[in-house]
Specification:
The protein has 442 residues and is of the alpha/beta class. It has helices at residues 6-9, 41-52, 92-102, 121-131, 155-159, 168-176, 200-206, 219-229, 257-270, 298-311, 326-329, 364-373, 394-403, 428-433; strands spanning 31-37, 61-67, 81-84, 107-112, 115-117, 135-144, 163-164, 195-199, 233-245, 288-292, 316-319, 334-336, 351-355, 359-361, 379-384, 390-393, 410-414, 419-421.
Length: 442
Amino acid sequence: MSGGGPVESGIVPGNRWDLVGDARPATPPRVSVIVAHYDQPDELARTLAALAAQDHPADRLEIIVADDGSPHPVSVPAGVQVVRQEDRGFRLAAVRNLGVRASTGDILCFLDADTAPEPGYISALTRLPALLPDAVTVGRRRHADLAGVPVQTPVAEAVRGRELAEPAWLADAYARSRNLLDADDRSYRYVIGAVIASSRRLFDDVGGFDESFTAYGGEDWEWAHRAWQAGALLAHVPDAVAWHDGPEWAGREGSDRERANAQTLRLAASVPVSGSAGFGVRRSVPDLAVHLTGEHSDASLFVCVDSILATFPHAVVVLDAEPAVEALRSDARVRVRDGGESGGGAVDARVTWTLDRPMLVDDAAGLAECLAALGSGEVGTIEVESSGGVLRSRRAERRAARLCTEVGFTSVRRRVPGIHPLRPDPHVEAYVGGWGSLDAFV
């Protein structure tokens, strides 16, 4: 990549997609539209007619209908490809992946069969992914009652006077975050799978939709969370409007608390960040992995590891060698680095904290502030003063590996209260007994 500005290099710091301004790609990108479908012939016909009316050049647009085992043959216009999987229940994630495998475009655009785009939708939604290959864009999904409207009716005419309420929670979130410019670890909730786009390069790096999702909802949020953790940028594009035939999810029949709970419980295991996962249940992927390098006394090792896990119970600690202290060996959160591993070992945590000497952590606030800072904005690495090691976000690590450059995130040096270098012989009895001054330990 060149060393020019964001348009030339395709790299911006953090989530700053706004730095490309109103720039457009010199050549319209090759776009593959994946339309997920199951037994909605009229809605599909309307969406395909709307895609035929796009202002994006037709010779740069590929349309693939990915059918989830509809009971009847799927009818499409000439030039539209159909791929199909057998009906084994709701498998939206799998059928979207099937559509991607059949596609050839540089930009992937996902639509649902009952969501008809306005003429400028493709051009608006794919602009950022074409300029910034790490961008994931989400359009504006509006709602209308289109029952009885001929499917060939232009979208703007079809929806006139038939508009339904937009979800207020989503509009409020976009307003608060400045269209996701201020995205953070939980902004995946505002990425709606029926109206998203990304580069093929990013999609391949992140991996496809998780095909273990076999009930309505959640597969788009899990993918968006994975993309964000891989260093993606998130952007809402309000000018990319597509119309869903019918009300939003909360207004549909069967959208009760049981259904919402099922989605939340499923995501609690797949999205292990605060505000999404439980408070006490052990997370499948830790929020923080602490890699303590080198050899240290049993006493300092015990106090360091115990104080970290007491303050951050969802963390794991990776050591260079098997500890002699039985209490540490018996805790599953204490792991030993394999000889071929680096950094946080085999632990793919959201943040890795590398230490070359034991530390006492007696206050969570300072370190928690660092963890929050690494979940949003432009900071990817924090060097802690007083030999407190280095904190590094997964987002920065993954983006740097993909783009072969560190330009995408900044590094800062910070004094973090509540972290103290341990002496080689801390008074363990005083530590576990809760008596004695800090001088007994540091």
